[in-house]
Amino acid sequence: MEILSKLSGRLAELMKESDLSTPLLARQTGIDQSVIARILHAERMPSAKTLSALADFFACSTDYLLGRKDLPDERTFLPRPPFCERLGELLAHFQVTKYRLEQETGLTEETVNRWQKGAYEPSVESLIRLADHFGCSVDFILGRER
């Protein structure tokens, strides 16, 4: 998976620049050490929550962490709202219905309904799919930027 490989490399680079070990990063972010280790070894894609927490900690965009941008875009990002709220905002912003979103992205009705009910958060792959579809950043999809 190219994205996971890029994320792994970026995370390792940021940790090295900050002189952080995996245990220290885990303590400072509240992310389980094993989750960080699996990301560093390109074994596991993080959750949206973990991705946002890492981006917040390193004061960079999620797109930079994912290798979608070459520059870290260091600025202050907004706190991430629950995705069930953000989904409604996205549908209104892009003037698209749930049905049209499902049809145009290939997402299942069940998946979008679960997001809408707050039962599940989208995977990083789904966030990227949405960002690509709408031509925006993953941070915009997450509500970290407006």
Strand percentage: under 5%
Task: Give me the CATH superfamily of the largest domain.
Answer: lambda repressor-like DNA-binding domains
CATH topology of the largest domain: 434 Repressor (Amino-terminal Domain)
SS element count, helices: 10
Top CATH class of the largest domain: Mainly Alpha
Helix content: 55-70%
So, CATH architecture of the largest domain?
Answer: Orthogonal Bundle
Radius of gyration: 15 Å
The quaternary state of the protein chains shown equals: single chain
Structural class: mainly alpha
Summed over residues and divided by their number, the pLDDT gives a mean of 95
Write the element-wise H/E pattern from the N-terminal end onward: HHHHHHHHHH
- Compute the number of structural domains: 2
Q: Could you tell me the number of beta strands?
A: 0
Cα-to-Cα separation, first versus last residue: 29 Å
Silhouette: elongated
Unreliable stretches (pLDDT < 50, length at least 5) are none
**Strand count, sense and closure of the main sheet?**
none
